[in-house]
Amino acid sequence: MSEETIDGTNGCSKVRTGTQNEAALLALMEKTGYNMVQENGQRKFGGPPPGWEGPPPPRGCEVFVGKIPRDMYEDELVPVFERAGKIYEFRLMMEFSGENRGYAFVMYTTKEEAQLAIRILNNYEIRPGKFIGVCVSLDNCRLFIGAIPKEKKKEEILDEMKKVTEGVVDVIVYPSATDKTKNRGFAFVEYESHRAAAMARRKLIPGTFQLWGHTIQVDWADPEKEVDEETMQRVKVLYVRNLMISTTEETIKAEFNKFKPGSVERVKKLRDYAFVHFFNREDAVAAMSVMNGKCIDGASIEVTLAKPVNKENTWRQHLNGQISPNSENLIVFANKEESHPKILGKPPALPARLNGQHSPSPPEIERCTYPFFPGTKLTPISMYSLKSNHFNSAVMHLDYYCNKNNWAPPEYYLYSTTSQDGKVLLVYKIIIPAIANGSQSYFMPDKLCTTLEDAKELAAQFTLLHLDREHSLFSLDLCRRIWRK
Fold first, then answer.
1. Cβ contacts of 95 within 8 Å, gap of 6 or more
2. Separation of alpha carbons 175 and 186, rounded Å
3. What total number of domains does the chain contain?
4. Which GO terms describe its biological process (predicted)?
5. Has residue 7 been placed in a domain?
6. Phi and psi (nearest 5°) for 258?
């Protein structure tokens, strides 16, 4: 054991209390052969392990562990996480007091071991009444930069970002849906490391930083969901982007059928992207290699496989707007009783005067408002750049949910009937195009409403409740704040 290792361990053990002590850590190191050092507020166990040769494990091999009891340390934690596989490195975040900070990062030697750790140790009872959370950890090296002048080219944006931040590797810019000579007003900046990206974000995030005289928006790019190879081997749907608005589904189908007539089952196009469904996976893969980079109606298209979502790693959102520790991007409502349209933010009806009388109306919902002073500077933004807690209605939540999962917007179809007392009753059927080919092709509640707003809200609410327990859902690679490999 090196002198540095001994000193690092001793430095921590002096202030540690309870069952965890220097002897326990030394015994763990002697048993496993791993070294342990403390630096920059974290204690590293391994990295690499004894006898390791070659580069570190690839991306996707690390998991994040949260809700660790503050008086629990490696001698208790490492044996638990070794159940899932060989640990390359265990990093426990530490306080100056000697307690841990409640979370750690565990890197395994393979992606399969990391996924197994998530399956068997997420919500694991580490101590009586103490449950840890385990989910995938990704070193984010990419930033989302919004409010960029649309006439700027990739080279100009790359040069400018290199001037104001360090470690820039690449810039990804997408052409406008309506004018391919312009960008879409945002870009993704790739950095050489997570640290470089974090330092750049820290510099740019205050909201006062300007590029070309414009105040820019800065945030982390949302990582694309990790999908195992076995699941990807079953995908037979292609995602096609950068199409012209004027290009029709018939044209797309004809172009993709050229290499093998009759291979395309159907095409669904929305704005400048489309989903091409094939009868056979082999034809989908062949078409992808042939069609990627081809021109359709003058536009150079990008073609990739649609990526299924791992439902075990989807995020849940509670009615109070809080995200659970083991969730990702899924927004659902806890139960039907609590998911009343009024709770979901049904807009209050304004009193209307009928024959000089105010019509009955529900009490107005209290709103949080601020004064709007003349001269206040306003910045155009997309609703999808907001957080989920900015939305109250289920209709908005569903639209946001589909966008966050990189799906096409939900489609609403209105139906009516007449009640026994002559009232017109309404209900919406909702189709999610990305999953419409599954066993459940649509979502429709079992209750009818007397107003259009209530019917739409109820249908959206019903759909959100069922999305997380139906089907394997396709996550389609859209252009907004995602990873591209």
1. 70, 101
2. 10
3. 4
4. meiotic cell cycle; oogenesis; spermatogenesis
5. no
6. -60, -40
